[in-house]
Specification:
Structural class: mainly beta
Number of strands: 5
Strand content: 25-35%
Largest sheet: 3 strands, antiparallel
Strand order of the largest sheet: 3-2-4
Number of helices: 0
């Protein structure tokens, strides 16, 4: 994914948090749980491309 606008914080399970700024990119391992949030006042806009058919699987939060 490439961040087009905003500042995005993304954390993949077992890895350090990545802070994306416009023009930067991140590659997420397939099927690895991750969390992300837009940390800027302007909306975050992403360009996301997949190498294979979509394999994103939503995970229910375990927070109560």
């Amino acid at each position: 994914m490439v961040l087009v606008a905003g500042e995005l914080h993304v954390t993949y399970a077992g890895q350090k948090k990545a802070v994306l700024k416009p023009g930067s990119y991140a590659y997420g391992p397939a099927k690895r749980p991750h969390d992300g949030y837009c940390a800027s006042k302007v909306p975050c806009v992403l360009f996301i491309a997949f190498e294979s058919p979509l394999d994103a699987v939503p995970v229910e939060s375990k927070e109560t």
